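ok so for the tutorial part 2 we go from a plain amino acid sequence to predicted C-alpha cells. step 1 is just haveing the sequence, like this:
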Amino acid sequence: MGNIISISTIGQDSHRFGEPAEDCSIRLGGIDIPFDRNIVANSDGDVVFHAVTNAISGFTGVNILGGEADKICLEKGIKDSSVYLKKAMEYMTEGRIVHCSVTIECLRPKLMPHIPAMKESLGSILGIPASSVGITATTGEGLTGFGRGEGIQVFAILTFVKEI
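step 2 — the prediction. this is what the C-alpha cells look like for a chain of 164 residues:
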C-alpha cells in the first residue's frame, strides 16, 4: 500500500443580479431561495455548484465550466448546475473528496436559514456527509459590489485524499 497525501484546491465563481422582479428565486447549493431578483447567467446560475465544480477541475485538470458545461447548457439546453458538478465528478478517477468549505459573499438574500439544506445537497453530490461541508456567508462589510448587493460571489476549497 502506498502513501496517502492530502491535496486542497480552490474554486471561485460570481454572478450579477438582474433587475427586481416578482416571484423570483435563486438557486444556491441546489436549493431554491426566494429573492426579489434573478441571477444573470446562461445556466441556473448556482454559484455554489459552479465554485465547487471549478475546485474539482483544479484537482482533475479538466475544465468543466466554459468547456463541457457550455455544450451541456447551450447545445443541449440543460441549465441545472448539478449536472455540471456531476460531470466534474466523473473525472475523479484518483482520490476522493473528504471536506468542502464554501464562503458566500452577498448583501442579500440572508442565507443562514438555508445553509443546512445547502450542506445536505452539496454533501450528497460530493459523496461526503453534510458534517464535512462548511458553508459561511458574509457581506464583506460592503467593500465590494457583492457586499453592496450587485451580485453574489463564492469561493470553495476542497480537500482530497489520494494514494501515491
